[in-house]
Amino acid sequence: MGTKKKSWKEERIRRDQIDKYLNADGSDFINDVLIESQIRDNVNPDPQKVRDIIAKSMAVETLSPQEAATLLNVEDPQLWKEMEEAAGLIKQKVYDNRIVTFAPLYLSTSCVNNCLYCGLRSDNQSVTRGILSIDEVKREIEVLAGTIGHKRLIIVYGEHPQSDVDYMAETMEAIYGVKAKVKNGYSSIRRVNVNAAPLPIEYLSRLNQIGIGTYQVFQETYHKKTYSTVHPSNTLKGDYRWRLYCMHRALEAGIDDVGIGALFGLYEWKFEVMALLYHAIELETKFGIGPHTISFPRLEPADNTPFNQSSAHRVSDEDFRKIVTMIRLAVPYTGMILTARENAQMRKSLIPCGVTQTDASSKIGLGAYNSYDGPEQVANRQQFILGDTRSLDEVVRELALMGHITSFCTAGYRCGRTGQCIMDLLRTGAEGKFCKLNAVITYREWLDDFASEETKSVGEQIIKNEIEEVKCTNPKVFEMFMDYYRRTAEGERDLYF
Ligand code: SAM
Ligand code: SF4
């Protein structure tokens, strides 16, 4: 048994699937020394220079690392306020008032890695391990799609031979196959995003054929020394470059939508923001497609994991706000995911800084939506502790009261609006036109199938405003849109542009 597992591990990392992407001199695209010096060299920026850079972001142009370093060095609170306002306006320009929602679903909690910050690390003896059977997966989907009304998931796997590509493929197919009965027909998961370990190109092609949405892998920290401290070198995750180039492999495998991220709290936050920008620029340069999403998880407490309290780089709420603002300004076209790691108050206050996606009714224990019937959060059954476990209904209502429409739209991916195509649409602001129509239609669906009376009454006002807006801004399609809208209100499902 021991040898079998070893050979699985030994076979995983394909050196040639790293080397071919390296620079001619054998280096990668993260130059730690250069990044540190760019941050150091741009202190005390001239306010006019800062405003010129903000104007570039407002034109939906990716910033250069020098420009980002300049903004990162702003100390004046008034200028930060201007940056924050600009971040909100950019989000509005590119994505309008839509916030996409989803839920996380953990499928396995066994992991061969030993990341110091993670409750699921192999050394942690106190955590409960497991893997959902296909029947258990289907039962989770019955709740997620049938009772709560989610249409999008991020499914999460530990890195382990039991949850390798065959299991991933089988579970994805099972998820797409569930049609949960609701009063107006059925509800199903229409987009499955995946957060898993870095995979070889062949495996990624296979997941692409099954219909993977976004493939998400976070570098955790781009700082090489810190990376090797928190990811022991005898583990698969200890290989920095295998992880660094996984989005190159994904794009080569035909997966258009890739999601990058850093776990804030491991190293200096300004460095990580710069490195995320370098990653985005590298993908734009090599593939013509930047990251579909950027995630910015912040270190949370986890069972039996003292590292998380002792890290010297834990991020304050104030700095976290700057992180969100900076990512929006540096990579203006990208989707930005704020998760339920953050508490309700923090989420409410950060959404106006440029966030485009957020989860709701999240449970991250294995089988927690249906199969497991205990308290909401149990430390030794989950990777870390969530800060916000509010229901989707409450989150939709809060967003509506803030003037946002929660979008359940999954059409972009199903109509081929991904990758280069979506990048162009986002940059020109045209994406919002399709998405607004689909957002309204899917919102109608969700309100009728799942909302409480209280949420429904707030949501109706949003719909009214949106219909007026479509009438004025998109008159050519208005008639057809209203036809789809009426049919949806009468009970037809899954109509989209
Ligand atoms: N096993 C996969 C991997 O490591 O790539 C996915 C696991 S997990 C759902 C996804 C992310 O959660 C990790 O990439 C990491 O950034 C984050 N994470 C891990 N431990 C965390 C903690 N204690 N607090 C907050 N986020 C954490
Ligand atoms: Fe495993 Fe991911 Fe946790 Fe690391 S972060 S121990 S790879 S589940």
What would you say this structure looks like, in words?
This protein has 497 residues and is an alpha/beta fold. It folds into two domains: 2-22 and 99-391, Aldolase class I (TIM Barrel); 34-87, no CATH class. It contains 22 helices and eleven strands. The strands form two sheets. It has an eight-stranded parallel barrel with strand order 1-2-5-6-7-8-9-10, surrounded by six helices. A two-stranded antiparallel ribbon has the order 3-4. Helix 5 runs antiparallel to helix 15, helix 13 (269-287) runs parallel beside helix 15 (317-330) and helix 20 (431-450) runs parallel beside helix 22 (475-489). The model has no long low-confidence stretch (mean pLDDT 93). Residues 117-118, 156, 158-159, 195-197, 217-218, 220, 263, 297, 299-300, 302, 308, 341, 383-384 line the site of S-adenosylmethionine (SAM). Iron/sulfur cluster binds at residues 111, 113, 115, 118, 120-121, 158-159, 237.
Provide a brief overview of the structure:
The protein is an alpha/beta fold and 497 residues long.
Q: Based on CA inertia axes, which overall geometry fits?
A: globular
User: What name goes with the CATH superfamily of the largest domain?
Assistant: Aldolase class I
CATH class of the largest domain: Alpha Beta
Please give the alpha-carbon distance between the first and last residues: 52 Å
The CATH topology of the largest domain corresponds to TIM Barrel
State mean pLDDT (0 to 100 scale): 93
Q: Main sheet?
A: 8 strands, parallel, barrel
As a percent range, the share of strand residues is: 5-15%
* The CATH architecture of the largest domain: Alpha-Beta Barrel
